[in-house]
Specification:
Elongation Factor Tu (Ef-tu), domain 3; Alpha-Beta Plaits; 5 domains; 6-stranded mixed β-sheet
Length: 597
């Protein structure tokens, strides 16, 4: 065990985690130059295209130190985006140490701090690594000073490298071996293995990623999950190299996988403890917090025939993604679908894209919303995230909405525009300080509903890409909330209903009406598109009718002849409007989701 090191790489988005992992894999000769490709551990197409890591990945690196002793280094590559911080927390609980990667040009950013705190919560030994020292704009000495002052980490342990060129990566290996502690545990005591991830293989069933804390597991053992007491017989155990490599056993301190013919998704709960049925452990390991969904949206298949396929696809995705929740939902306009909970808007986009790509299902999404608490006059409390379940306003005593504490790191020159953006989004209790000259750490309490809509995109555009953003849930606060309905030709389209703050309702309603006007094709009669709160209309646009020129053949004579033809046409249009049906195209639902530019 003294020659094993379990560590992960944590960093802000785009600071070079996956590139550093690639270099380390190459240096350990796990892959030939011919087989090598960038982002080796990112095995989803969507990860490669966007250049982001979504799933934590594990790999076992054999390393020979300068003194000739052989080590096994278990590397867990983690995502950097704020939406996937739950992946990071799961991965960190299986390690003893972490490399905190910081961009030499960008310095310490919001997510760097958030990930450092996560590592500290798990009592990990942290080695700061300054990456991208080959960039022309790199200032490694300034960043090293920042690490000591802002993060309170020892500057003597700072490693400098360029993951792109491979410079300094060898020194990182030596730092891991000398500075990170070996795992602790007793191979002879009862088995305690922590599940930190699970993937689905259509041939072998669920592949459980585990960190063995105590004990030993081998093929033929009967294992038990401590949260639900399910028992399975182990088929295979092994290590993650570039491909899975079977082993005779896994013992304390090791990170590997277990195959036990597990067919159902729900049984493998990340954070659960595995023990042996024959000699169970007395207590479970301290698990994870339950994942908290913050954004809710309904997914409907464009073709109603795809409903069963969508249900099966969501089941499969839920296996690889413990944070996704869904329940059945239906809508008069869109038919049957699912109400899903997500960690944030990027998580929602990724799930939507995976459903469309991997399962070939075309989807419509409703407007994303958050979970509100309704206190009714009869003393009951309701948790509501779906506008369709909005109670009768006469029975509502008060409504509370979730607030977050946002930490925004920006260059000093953008202070004014960022403050204006936060004030527009009902920000309160703002504070700021200067971590380094020229950079401001700005903190603000914001309603989550106004952040999920398009806050991150706006922040990036007004700060020209330099702003970094991280948030943590705070509490629930009273709010003046209304249900905004969209009416087309006098009928409510339930899929377009939104829960919004009264202050923003007029702007949001007008935006929806304008977008629908562009998308709904013209009919033979005039279509009114309205936004309403209860019985009062707050915004309206019209789609004008297609009209035939009925007076074309009528020339000369008295004006009453023309008027008679126009009146006849008007009566026909009126009759058509009462029986006419407006089909809303799928693009219209997507257009309403797009925020105002």
């Amino acid at each position: 065990m003294k020659n094993i090191r379990n560590f992960s790489i944590i960093a802000h988005i785009d600071h070079g985690k996956s590139t550093l992992a690639d270099r380390m894999i190459q240096l350990c000769d796990l892959v030939t130059d011919r087989e090598f490709k960038d982002q080796l551990l990112d095995n989803m197409d969507i990860e490669r295209e966007r250049g982001i890591t979504i799933k934590s990945q594990t790999i076992c690196l054999p390393y020979t130190a300068e003194d000739g002793s052989k080590y096994i280094l278990n590397l867990v590559d983690t995502p950097g985006h704020v939406d996937f911080s739950y992946e990071v927390s799961r991965a960190l609980s299986s390690c003893e140490g972490a490399l905190l990667l910081i961009d030499a040009a960008q310095g310490v950013e919001a997510q760097t701090l958030a990930n450092l705190y996560l590592a500290m919560e798990n009592d990990l030994e942290v080695i700061p690594v300054i990456n991208k020292i080959d960039l022309p704009s790199a200032e490694p000495e300034t960043v090293a000073l920042q690490i000591e002052e802002d993060l309170g980490l020892e500057s003597d342990n700072v490693q400098f490298c360029s993951a792109k060129t491979g410079k300094g990566v060898e020194n990182i290996f030596e730092a891991i071996v000398s500075l990170l502690p070996p795992p602790e545990g007793d191979p002879s005591s009862p088995l305690q293995a922590l599940i930190f991830d699970a993937n689905y293989d259509s041939f072998r069933g669920t592949i459980i990623s585990v960190r063995i804390i105590n004990g030993t597991v081998k093929p033929g053992d009967t294992i038990r999950f401590m949260s639900n007491n399910q028992e399975y017989k182990v088929d295979e155990v092994g290590l993650f190299k570039l491909n899975r490599e079977a082993q005779k056993q896994l013992s304390a301190g090791q990170v590997g996988y277990i195959l036990a013919g597990i067919k159902t998704v729900e049984d493998t709960r990340p954070g659960d403890t595995i023990t042996l049925a024959s000699a169970p452990a007395t207590s479970a390991l301290p698990g994870f917090k339950m994942v908290q969904q913050v954004v809710f949206s309904s997914l409907y298949p464009i073709s109603t025939d795809d409903y069963e396929d969508l249900a099966a696809a969501l089941e499969k995705l839920k296996l690889n993604d413990a944070a996704l929740t869904f329940e059945k939902d239906s809508s008069a306009a869109l038919g049957f679908g699912f109400r899903c909970g997500f960690l944030g808007l990027l998580h929602l986009e990724v799930i939507q894209e995976r459903l469309e790509r991997e399962f070939d299902i075309s989807l419509i999404l409703t407007v994303p919303s958050v979970q509100y608490t309704f206190h009714l006059s009869d003393g009951r409390e309701l948790q509501i995230d779906n506008p369709a379940h909005f109670p009768d306003p006469a029975n509502i005593a008060k409504i509370e909405e979730p607030f977050i504490k946002a930490t925004i790191l920006i260059p000093e020159r953008y202070m004014g525009v960022v403050m204006t953006l936060c004030m527009e989004r009902r920000g309160e209790n703002t504070s700021f300080h200067y971590p380094t000259p020229g950079r401001i750490e700005f903190q603000c309490e914001l309603p989550l509903a106004d952040v999920i809509y398009d806050f991150y995109d706006k922040l990036k555009s007004i700060t020209q890409g330099y702003g970094s953003f991280d948030y943590a849930m705070l509490d629930y606060r009273p709010s003046d909330l209304v249900k905004l309905d969209i009416l087309v030709n006098g009928e409510v389209v339930d899929a377009l209903s939104q829960l919004v703050h009264r202050k923003n309702s007029r702007a949001r309603g007008l935006h929806a009406c304008e977008m629908l006007k562009e998308e709904i094709p013209r009919q033979m009669f005039k279509i009114a598109i309205q936004a309403a709160i209860g019985g009062s209309i707050i915004a309206r646009t019209n789609v004008s009718a297609l009209r035939k020129d009925v007076t074309a053949k009528c020339y000369g004579g008295d004006i009453s002849r023309k008027r008679k033809l126009l009146e006849k046409q008007k009566a026909g249009k009126k009759r058509m409007k009462t029986v006419g049906n407006v089909d809303i195209p799928q693009t219209a639902f997507l257009a309403v989701l797009k925020s105002e530019q």
